[in-house]
Amino acid sequence: MSYKSISTLLCDAKQDLHILDAAIALARQHDAHLDIICLGLDRTQPGFYYSGANAIILQDKMNLAQDESQAIETAVLAHMEPQDIRWSTRPMVAQMAGLAVQIAQVMRFSDLVILPRPYGKGREIEHERIIEAALFSARRPVLVMPANAALPASLNTAVTAWNESTEALNAIRAALPMLQDAKQVDITIIDPPKHGPDRSDPGGALCQMLARHSVDVEVSVLAKTMPRVADVLMRHVQDKSADILVMGAYGHSRLRESILGGATRHILENVEIPVFMAH
Question: Inter-axis angle of helices 229-239 and 263-270, to 10 degrees?
Fold first, then answer.
């Protein structure tokens, strides 16, 4: 198994250009085509302007978005010129209201989408919208790259968060090409249910599935010794010196996660290694 079509999206050339390095490395490793979307975003909200001003303001903002898209593409072309992989750029101009639809139309044909961390310093609402569009509208797995993270050419340890959910299984299935290349894959289970179907052998069925795909796998069953499951998971990632974390995305509703917080959001805000997610 391998990825043959990889997509990434940049909406800020200064902050997001680092994700190209991870995308280039994966594309080279899997002999894949890299599609780079250069997004210029119109952030206007027409309903807040006085009558008659909408058309003028919208046209002006769309022109600015087109200039932004072209500037990003120029930076990408300069970065990609010496690369020895197959790649293409795709300029895109979108408004916030239609962002998810446009992203889904181009990303749904990709095997994998690589995006920057959506939270933190310099991150705006569009970064969260973009990753949600890739996960929920395009239904594609997403590799999230924190700014200072690197993806090794050969993975030593991959940690997979397992809680019996469909989201977690989807992420693990989608990550199989990477897990097969890892020297060690750790199935991490935190506080498994005492009366669950796998109570006598937590993670056993998943371990069997991965072993049949020639994945060298082990199981770690952890107690919830910290208030947040996400904190236990991140501590385990550090203890294992993991190169990547594989997990299901947004097991709770996005509204609940945005208001009350959740494992997905907390990890994306704090983890410093690449995170592979699917829903």
Answer: 40
Q: Based on the number of CB atoms within 10 Å of its own CB, is 193 exposed (0-12), middle (13-18) or buried (19 or more)? A: exposed
Q: Under CATH, which number does the domain 5-145 receive?
A: 3.40.50.620
Q: How many CB atoms sit inside 10 A of residue 160's CB? A: 29
Q: In which band, very low, low, confident or very high, does the pLDDT at 260 lie, cut at 50, 70 and 90?
A: very low
Q: pTM above 0.90? A: yes
Give SS3 for 130: helix
**Residue 46 pLDDT exceeds 60:** no
Structure tokens at 256: 């609940």
Q: CATH class for domain 155-277? A: alpha beta
Alpha carbons 196 and 35: distance in angstroms, whole number: 42
The tokens 């310093």 sit on which residue? Answer: 121
Q: Tell me how far CA of residue 167 lies from CA of 22, 128, 248, in angstroms.
A: 24, 18, 4
- Quote the pLDDT of residue 75: 96
Which tokens hold the place of 179?
A: 């897990």
**What's the mean pLDDT when you consider all of the chain?**
90
Task: CATH 3.40.50.620 in the chain: give the residue spans.
Answer: 5-145, 155-277
Q: Which of 52-56, 103-107, 191-195 has the lowest mean pLDDT?
A: 52-56
What value does the mean pLDDT take over residues 217-241? 96
Can you tell me the distance from the alpha carbon of 85 to that of 80, in angstroms, rounded to the nearest whole number?
9
Contact present, 189 and 222 (Cβ < 8 Å): yes
